[in-house]
Design goal:
There is one protein chain. α2 (37-46) packs parallel to α3 and α4 (88-97) packs parallel to α8 (191-208). The strands form three sheets. The chain has a five-stranded parallel sheet, with helices on both faces. It has a four-stranded antiparallel sheet with strand order 6-7-8-9, covered by helices on one side. A three-stranded antiparallel sheet has the order 10-12-11. The chain has helices spanning 14-26, 37-46, 63-73, 88-97, 109-126, 159-170, 178-186, 191-208; strands at residues 6-10, 30-34, 51-55, 79-83, 101-104, 133-136, 139-142, 147-149, 154-156, 175-177, 215-219, 223-227. The protein has eight helices and twelve strands. The protein has two domains: 6-126, Response regulator (Rossmann fold); 133-227, Winged helix-like DNA-binding domain superfamily/Winged helix DNA-binding domain (Arc Repressor Mutant, subunit A), CATH 1.10.10. The chain is an alpha/beta fold and 236 residues long. The mean pLDDT is 86.
Length: 236
Protein backbone atom coordinates (compact mmCIF):
# COMPACT_ATOMS: atom_id res chain seq x y z
CA UNK A 1 0.00 0.00 0.00
CA UNK A 2 1.31 3.44 -0.92
CA UNK A 3 2.37 5.68 1.98
CA UNK A 4 0.08 8.61 2.64
CA UNK A 5 1.46 12.04 1.76
CA UNK A 6 2.31 13.92 4.95
CA UNK A 7 1.20 17.50 5.54
CA UNK A 8 2.57 19.84 8.20
CA UNK A 9 -0.37 22.05 9.19
CA UNK A 10 0.33 25.06 11.44
CA UNK A 11 -2.81 26.96 12.45
CA UNK A 12 -3.52 28.64 15.80
CA UNK A 13 -7.31 28.79 15.30
CA UNK A 14 -8.24 25.50 16.95
CA UNK A 15 -11.58 25.11 15.15
CA UNK A 16 -10.20 25.87 11.69
CA UNK A 17 -7.10 23.76 12.31
CA UNK A 18 -9.10 20.72 13.43
CA UNK A 19 -11.60 21.09 10.61
CA UNK A 20 -8.80 21.39 8.02
CA UNK A 21 -6.89 18.42 9.42
CA UNK A 22 -10.01 16.22 9.45
CA UNK A 23 -10.91 17.22 5.89
CA UNK A 24 -7.39 16.48 4.63
CA UNK A 25 -7.37 13.11 6.39
CA UNK A 26 -10.76 12.30 4.79
CA UNK A 27 -9.07 13.02 1.43
CA UNK A 28 -6.34 10.46 2.15
CA UNK A 29 -3.56 12.70 3.48
CA UNK A 30 -1.73 12.32 6.79
CA UNK A 31 -2.05 15.79 8.33
CA UNK A 32 -0.36 16.80 11.59
CA UNK A 33 -1.65 19.95 13.29
CA UNK A 34 0.41 22.37 15.40
CA UNK A 35 -0.93 25.50 17.09
CA UNK A 36 2.16 27.72 16.87
CA UNK A 37 5.22 28.22 14.68
CA UNK A 38 7.68 26.97 17.28
CA UNK A 39 5.94 23.60 17.66
CA UNK A 40 5.63 23.41 13.86
CA UNK A 41 9.36 23.98 13.37
CA UNK A 42 10.31 21.31 15.93
CA UNK A 43 7.99 18.84 14.18
CA UNK A 44 9.46 19.73 10.76
CA UNK A 45 13.00 19.00 11.97
CA UNK A 46 11.92 15.59 13.29
CA UNK A 47 9.54 14.45 10.55
CA UNK A 48 9.49 14.15 6.78
CA UNK A 49 6.70 16.19 5.19
CA UNK A 50 5.58 16.42 1.57
CA UNK A 51 4.01 19.88 1.91
CA UNK A 52 3.60 22.59 4.58
CA UNK A 53 0.44 24.66 5.19
CA UNK A 54 1.36 27.63 7.36
CA UNK A 55 -0.92 30.21 8.94
CA UNK A 56 0.73 33.64 8.71
CA UNK A 57 -0.41 35.05 12.08
CA UNK A 58 0.69 32.63 14.81
CA UNK A 59 2.06 32.97 18.35
CA UNK A 60 5.74 32.31 19.24
CA UNK A 61 6.80 32.27 15.57
CA UNK A 62 4.75 33.66 12.69
CA UNK A 63 4.32 31.91 9.35
CA UNK A 64 6.92 34.04 7.56
CA UNK A 65 9.60 33.31 10.16
CA UNK A 66 8.69 29.62 10.19
CA UNK A 67 8.85 29.47 6.37
CA UNK A 68 12.31 31.10 6.37
CA UNK A 69 13.57 28.56 8.90
CA UNK A 70 12.06 25.67 6.93
CA UNK A 71 13.65 27.03 3.72
CA UNK A 72 17.03 27.21 5.48
CA UNK A 73 16.99 23.42 6.01
CA UNK A 74 14.92 22.37 2.98
CA UNK A 75 14.72 24.43 -0.20
CA UNK A 76 12.40 21.94 -1.94
CA UNK A 77 9.40 21.26 0.30
CA UNK A 78 6.33 23.13 -1.03
CA UNK A 79 4.86 25.80 1.26
CA UNK A 80 1.33 27.24 1.10
CA UNK A 81 0.45 30.20 3.32
CA UNK A 82 -3.00 30.34 4.90
CA UNK A 83 -3.63 34.02 5.42
CA UNK A 84 -6.36 36.37 6.52
CA UNK A 85 -4.31 39.10 4.86
CA UNK A 86 -5.08 39.79 1.22
CA UNK A 87 -2.69 42.73 1.02
CA UNK A 88 -0.33 42.70 -1.97
CA UNK A 89 2.69 43.46 0.24
CA UNK A 90 2.02 40.52 2.55
CA UNK A 91 1.51 38.08 -0.31
CA UNK A 92 4.63 39.28 -2.13
CA UNK A 93 6.57 38.97 1.13
CA UNK A 94 5.48 35.33 1.25
CA UNK A 95 6.65 34.70 -2.30
CA UNK A 96 10.01 36.36 -1.59
CA UNK A 97 10.55 33.94 1.28
CA UNK A 98 9.93 31.07 -1.14
CA UNK A 99 6.25 30.17 -0.77
CA UNK A 100 4.70 28.15 -3.58
CA UNK A 101 1.17 29.45 -3.09
CA UNK A 102 -1.14 31.27 -0.70
CA UNK A 103 -4.82 30.94 0.06
CA UNK A 104 -6.80 33.67 1.80
CA UNK A 105 -9.28 32.98 4.60
CA UNK A 106 -12.07 32.13 4.56
CA UNK A 107 -11.29 29.45 1.98
CA UNK A 108 -13.16 26.42 0.74
CA UNK A 109 -11.66 23.07 1.67
CA UNK A 110 -12.17 21.91 -1.92
CA UNK A 111 -10.05 24.78 -3.22
CA UNK A 112 -7.32 24.06 -0.67
CA UNK A 113 -7.14 20.41 -1.77
CA UNK A 114 -7.03 21.46 -5.45
CA UNK A 115 -4.11 23.80 -4.71
CA UNK A 116 -2.28 21.06 -2.79
CA UNK A 117 -2.83 18.54 -5.60
CA UNK A 118 -1.65 21.02 -8.26
CA UNK A 119 1.58 21.74 -6.39
CA UNK A 120 2.31 18.09 -5.65
CA UNK A 121 1.64 17.21 -9.29
CA UNK A 122 4.06 19.89 -10.40
CA UNK A 123 6.76 18.73 -7.97
CA UNK A 124 6.31 15.14 -9.14
CA UNK A 125 6.25 16.18 -12.81
CA UNK A 126 9.50 18.05 -12.33
CA UNK A 127 11.32 14.77 -11.76
CA UNK A 128 12.57 13.32 -15.01
CA UNK A 129 12.23 16.13 -17.53
CA UNK A 130 13.96 15.40 -20.87
CA UNK A 131 16.80 17.86 -20.37
CA UNK A 132 18.32 17.64 -16.91
CA UNK A 133 21.42 19.80 -17.40
CA UNK A 134 21.55 23.11 -19.30
CA UNK A 135 24.57 25.16 -20.31
CA UNK A 136 23.86 28.89 -19.93
CA UNK A 137 26.96 30.84 -20.93
CA UNK A 138 29.59 30.07 -18.30
CA UNK A 139 26.94 28.54 -16.00
CA UNK A 140 25.74 24.95 -15.78
CA UNK A 141 22.21 24.43 -14.46
CA UNK A 142 21.35 21.02 -13.01
CA UNK A 143 17.54 20.90 -12.95
CA UNK A 144 17.38 17.70 -10.88
CA UNK A 145 19.60 18.97 -8.08
CA UNK A 146 18.31 22.55 -8.51
CA UNK A 147 21.87 23.89 -8.59
CA UNK A 148 23.34 26.64 -10.77
CA UNK A 149 27.13 26.51 -10.85
CA UNK A 150 30.30 27.78 -12.50
CA UNK A 151 33.88 26.55 -12.12
CA UNK A 152 34.28 28.43 -8.85
CA UNK A 153 30.79 28.88 -7.40
CA UNK A 154 27.57 26.97 -6.86
CA UNK A 155 24.12 28.32 -5.99
CA UNK A 156 21.22 26.24 -4.68
CA UNK A 157 17.90 27.34 -6.19
CA UNK A 158 14.45 27.16 -4.64
CA UNK A 159 11.84 25.03 -6.40
CA UNK A 160 10.19 28.12 -7.95
CA UNK A 161 13.52 29.57 -9.15
CA UNK A 162 14.45 26.21 -10.64
CA UNK A 163 11.10 25.75 -12.41
CA UNK A 164 11.22 29.25 -13.89
CA UNK A 165 14.85 28.93 -15.01
CA UNK A 166 14.01 25.52 -16.57
CA UNK A 167 11.25 27.13 -18.64
CA UNK A 168 13.51 30.01 -19.68
CA UNK A 169 16.21 27.50 -20.70
CA UNK A 170 13.71 25.39 -22.65
CA UNK A 171 12.87 28.59 -24.60
CA UNK A 172 16.43 29.98 -24.67
CA UNK A 173 16.81 32.88 -27.14
CA UNK A 174 13.05 32.71 -27.78
CA UNK A 175 10.13 34.44 -26.08
CA UNK A 176 8.75 32.68 -23.01
CA UNK A 177 5.14 33.83 -22.91
CA UNK A 178 4.19 35.31 -19.57
CA UNK A 179 0.80 33.60 -19.33
CA UNK A 180 2.25 30.24 -20.32
CA UNK A 181 4.88 30.50 -17.57
CA UNK A 182 2.31 31.61 -14.99
CA UNK A 183 -0.09 28.79 -15.78
CA UNK A 184 2.70 26.21 -15.91
CA UNK A 185 4.34 27.16 -12.61
CA UNK A 186 1.73 29.09 -10.62
CA UNK A 187 -1.41 27.43 -12.13
CA UNK A 188 -3.22 30.79 -12.17
CA UNK A 189 -2.19 33.95 -14.07
CA UNK A 190 -3.72 36.39 -11.56
CA UNK A 191 -2.16 39.70 -10.48
CA UNK A 192 -0.42 38.38 -7.35
CA UNK A 193 1.18 35.45 -9.16
CA UNK A 194 2.31 37.77 -11.98
CA UNK A 195 3.98 40.05 -9.42
CA UNK A 196 5.53 37.01 -7.77
CA UNK A 197 7.01 35.91 -11.09
CA UNK A 198 8.58 39.37 -11.50
CA UNK A 199 10.25 38.88 -8.10
CA UNK A 200 11.69 35.54 -9.22
CA UNK A 201 12.90 36.96 -12.56
CA UNK A 202 14.81 39.63 -10.58
CA UNK A 203 16.35 36.93 -8.38
CA UNK A 204 17.46 34.91 -11.42
CA UNK A 205 18.99 38.01 -13.06
CA UNK A 206 21.11 38.53 -9.93
CA UNK A 207 22.23 34.91 -9.95
CA UNK A 208 23.28 35.11 -13.61
CA UNK A 209 24.87 38.57 -13.51
CA UNK A 210 28.47 37.24 -13.40
CA UNK A 211 28.28 36.42 -17.12
CA UNK A 212 27.84 39.60 -19.21
CA UNK A 213 26.75 37.49 -22.21
CA UNK A 214 23.58 36.40 -20.40
CA UNK A 215 20.51 38.56 -20.09
CA UNK A 216 16.85 38.02 -19.18
CA UNK A 217 14.94 40.74 -21.01
CA UNK A 218 11.32 41.84 -20.78
CA UNK A 219 9.38 41.62 -24.04
CA UNK A 220 6.67 44.22 -23.50
CA UNK A 221 3.18 42.74 -23.48
CA UNK A 222 4.47 39.24 -24.18
CA UNK A 223 6.89 37.82 -21.65
CA UNK A 224 10.59 37.22 -21.17
CA UNK A 225 13.56 36.10 -23.20
CA UNK A 226 16.69 34.43 -21.84
CA UNK A 227 19.51 35.58 -24.13
CA UNK A 228 22.60 33.37 -23.91
CA UNK A 229 25.32 32.02 -26.21
CA UNK A 230 24.09 29.02 -28.20
CA UNK A 231 24.95 25.69 -26.55
CA UNK A 232 24.09 22.04 -27.08
CA UNK A 233 21.13 21.66 -24.72
CA UNK A 234 19.54 18.68 -26.43
CA UNK A 235 18.26 15.75 -24.32
CA UNK A 236 21.06 13.27 -23.66
Amino acid sequence: MEDKLRILLCEDDENLGTLTREYLEDKGYKAELFADGEAGYKAFLKGKYDICLLDVMMPKKDGYQLAQEIRAVNSDVPIIFLTAKALKEDILEGFKIGADDYITKPFSMEELVLRIEAILRRVKGKKGKEVTVYKIGKFTFDTQRQVLFTDDRSDNLTTKESELLSLLCAHMNEILERNFALKTIWIDDNYFNARSMDVYITKLRKKLKDDPNIEIINIHGKGYKLIAPEADNEPK
